[in-house]
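Reopening this ticket.

The earlier resolution said the output was attached, but the attachment link was broken on my side. Pasting everything inline this time so it's all in one place.
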Amino acid sequence: MADVAQLAGVSSQTVSRVSNGFPGVTEDTRAQVLAAMRELGYRPNSAARALRRGEFRTLGVITFSLSTMGNIRTLEAIANSAAEHGYAVTLLPVAVPTQDEVNGAFSRLGELAVDAVIVIMEIHLLDAATVSLPPGVQVVVADSDAGDRYTVVDTDQAGGARDAVRHLLDLGHDTVWHLAGPEGSFAAQRRANAWRTTLTEAGRTPPPLVRGDWSAESGYRAGLLLADEPDCTAVFTANDQMALGLLRALHERGRRVPDDISVIGFDDIPESASFLPPLTTIHQDFAQVGRLCVEGVLSKMREDGTEHGTTLVPTRLVRRASTAPRPR
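Inline output:
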């Protein structure tokens, strides 16, 4: 820094202001300092800066699956929001969701020097009595049922599922079949419970639940079964990828969508508008979930807060061409 200051003809304090992006430096002086930095090959030492400030400007993210669209979209939103606040993101995937693995992940993130942690918990792990997050670490959890112990941000899973079922009932369908996500998923459970409750409240008998694993292939296998159900005129699928496989199976079995069977998904992935037919679905605001996770953990860092509770991000119904009135 002293070499840069000497070459630029300014003080070391001015070089520090420029390298840290602080105001109070004229544009001419800033350009002069930057030119000297380039000529000398000077780069600010982020490690030394972190030690001096007591923060690393990095958020750790622990996730247990990178194979689901929801987790990928949430992670992308967290990274974008963190960057807007001047933070980087360190990702640590955990293959086996156990207490030992969670503790190991936090230990590794500590070694990697992060200021706080966001956990994308798509499975029932924090609900287990044997699993807990280390004390003294500022944490926000995405997609979990642990709001009584942690700060949680999630999509309104139940509200979205209710809207999907009511949409199909309003179109005159006697009942709605459900292609659910994996049994261990919090989101899948919330959507399935809301599907069953909404039908019951409407005086309809819920059909047998069909289980998938979020993949298009599992949707295809389920579609082959549902195509043979003569009373099946409407299907609520727990995500758009399974809906894609379902549409293919129905087409192969000669069941027209939406003339014979209406199909509605959940997520509103970018490709859903290009399905054949374009998919009616429930839109999740992944960007808002990511923003709230980052803002929540930064707030906890600033205030050293221990607040807990769940913030739900609303969903909305996106009507396209895959749903229609019940066939006569």
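Reporter confirms the inline version is readable. DSSP finds eleven helices and twelve strands in the chain. The mean pLDDT is 87.
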